[in-house]
């Protein structure tokens, strides 16, 4: 499931699945690259395992930058 929301000046992107494996951000790979990019833009990435049961939610919060009106 993919969720997109605007809240408190942030873009909130969350992906939820039922796969039991929780990824390790300490290793190289696609999710590590995403985490690095999110950090470069002063955002946050979290991984929250489902309790109880298999699955997890990977959530990215990115700050929205106001665009001046000409």
Explained architecture:
The chain is an alpha+beta fold and 70 residues long. It has one domain (2-63). Helix content is 16%, strand content 40%. The longest helix is centred in the middle third of the chain and has 11 residues, at 30-40. 1% of the residues are buried.
From the structure above, extract its key features.
four-stranded antiparallel sheet, alpha+beta, single chain, flat, 70 residues
Number of domains: 1
Biggest sheet strand order reads 1-2-4-3
| Number of separate helices | 1
Oligomeric form: single chain
Low-confidence stretches are: none
Q: Can you give the helix content as a percent range?
A: 10-25%
What structural category arises from helix and sheet content?
alpha+beta
Number of strands: 4
The average pLDDT value, as a whole number, equals 89
Distance between the termini: 38 Å
Strand content: 35-45%
How do the SSEs run, as a string of H and E?
EEHEE
| Major sheet summary line | 4 strands, antiparallel
List strands and helices in order, with pairings:
Layout: E1 2-7, E2 10-17, H1 30-40, E3 44-49, E4 56-63
Antiparallel strand pairs: 1-2, 2-4, 3-4
Question: How is this structure best summarized?
Answer:
With 70 residues, the protein is α+β, with helices and mostly antiparallel strands.
